[in-house]
Write a structure and sequence with these properties.
The chain is of the alpha+beta class. It has a single domain (3-298, 358-398), classed as Uncharacterised protein PF07063, DUF1338 (2,3-Dihydroxybiphenyl 1,2-Dioxygenase, domain 1). 44% of the residues lie in helices and 16% in strands. It has 17 helices and twelve strands. The strands form four sheets. A five-stranded mixed sheet has the order 3-4-5-2-8. A three-stranded mixed sheet has the order 7-10-11. A two-stranded antiparallel sheet has the order 1-6. It is globular and about 65 Å long.
């Protein structure tokens, strides 16, 4: 029996989501076109740019983002993505960002270097932190829970098939197309009418909360290409008449090694949606929820490097003090133990494969028309990496452990 390997399933899944999302959000195609143009230009001008990934890999690379409401829904996501060789890595608490969002998150991605090289598709996945009284009153929290209990995001047969494929390490080729198609369709934007009053009540707390618990399905919130020069991308998109967010998220542009992750996006676009009113009538309306994000990835920092990064970013103008925290060359970065390099070779940086909670929260909030701040008070919830791992039944990998293994391999 012919078997479709996991990485091929993942590549097919990523391509299917891109085709669907592009049909739903046409400006995504423009983002991909400009990203590809920038990447070709960067490599043509500087052949050393491919040390952070071949042109083919960088141009094909994507990450997606989805949002769910309950630990049970997140467990289904974990089981589904395991069929594509994507495992939870890292724990992100966006409630603690400067622009707080009531979610905690992980990222599903390949963890083996060869799998990343073949197809590095990632999905940043957030779960609504509805137990947090700083965002949700007791009454609203109870009604959110009741609403989420009445919906089912994924067909149980699809999740059962995913578990079987994950256990077998691949999918019978005769079943692969149908499995991938069903997986893609699970993240399509629903055309079911939205309860206007309920959605608006949640929006008063957070537009992200409304996008999660104000509808009866989940969907791709954004799909992100990778670019080798995000500043050039920002200029190129603006030249095409597309409104970008005001500031690139993440570390500043520097003359030295680019570190971690820089992100930008075009503003969320107005999309037609149908709403059910209190009298039962259905009317046409619009929402601004989904946006087009793009990312530039740099070298992965060690824990010491991350301490330096956090200190620099805490300054009013990180660019002005950057050279006080980081040296100007990869050789000095490697010698100082600030970043990961293959076998310590500064010509071979280990690419950062993960995310920054402050940047994610910044992107989320910069695309919203408005959001209420969290109430004052201490966090009395149990949200943590251990909590999440226990609820989804999957080990959550430590990014630093993975980078250490890659650097030594």
């Amino acid at each position: 029996m012919s078997i479709t390997e996991t990485w091929r399933l993942r590549a097919q899944f990523a391509a299917g989501l891109a085709a669907m999302y592009g049909a739903e959000v046409p400006a995504y195609h423009t983002l991909v076109e400009v990203s590809s143009e920038v990447n070709r230009g960067v490599v043509a001008a500087d052949g050393e740019a491919v040390r952070l990934g071949s042109l083919d890999r960088v141009t094909a690379e994507r990450h997606g983002a989805i949002r769910v409401g309950t630990a049970e829904e997140l467990a289904d996501v974990a089981d589904l993505f395991s069929a594509f060789g994507m495992y939870p890595v890292g724990y992100y608490d966006l409630r603690e960002a400067a622009s707080p969002v009531p979610v905690v998150s992980t990222a599903f991605r390949p963890i083996d270097p060869e799998e990343l090289a073949r197809n590095p598709f990632r999905v940043f996945t957030s779960i609504l932190a509805s137990a947090d009284r700083r965002f949700f009153s007791d009454d609203l929290r109870a009604r959110v829970a009741a609403f989420l209990e009445t919906r089912r995001l994924f067909d149980p047969a699809l999740i059962a098939a995913a578990r079987r494929i994950a256990a077998d390490g691949g999918c019978p080729t005769t079943e692969a197309d149908d499995f991938v198609a069903a997986s893609v369709s699970a993240f399509a934007l629903s055309r079911e009418p939205i309860d206007r009053g309920w959605y608006d009540e949640l929006s008063a707390v957070s537009a992200v909360a409304a996008d999660i618990a104000g509808v009866r399905s989940t969907h791709i919130n954004h799909l992100t290409p990778r670019v080798l020069d995000i500043d050039a991308l920002q200029r190129g998109m603006t030249a095409r008449g597309i409104t970008m967010i005001d500031h690139i998220q993440g570390p500043p542009r520097t003359d030295g090694p680019q570190v971690l992750l820089r992100q930008t996006s075009f503003r969320a676009l107005t999309e037609p949606r149908r709403f059910r009113l209190a009298d039962g009538s259905v009317v046409d309306g619009t929402l601004r929820v989904r946006f087009g994000e793009v990312e530039q990835r740099g070298v992965a920092l060690t824990p010491l490097g991350r301490q330096r990064y956090d200190a620099a970013m805490a300054c009013p103008d990180p660019a002005a003090v950057w050279d006080q925290h980081f040296p100007a060359t990869d050789a000095e970065m490697a010698a100082s133990g600030l970043a990961y390099y293959h076998d310590g070779d500064p010509a071979r940086p280990v690419v950062y494969e993960d995310f920054l909670p402050a940047s994610a929260a910044g992107i989320f909030r910069s695309n919203l028309d408005g959001d209420s701040p969290a109430a004052e008070g201490a966090d009395d919830t149990s949200y943590s990496q251990d909590w999440m791992a226990g609820r989804i039944g999957h080990h959550i990998h430590d990014p630093y452990d993975l980078y250490e293994k890659v650097a030594c391999s």
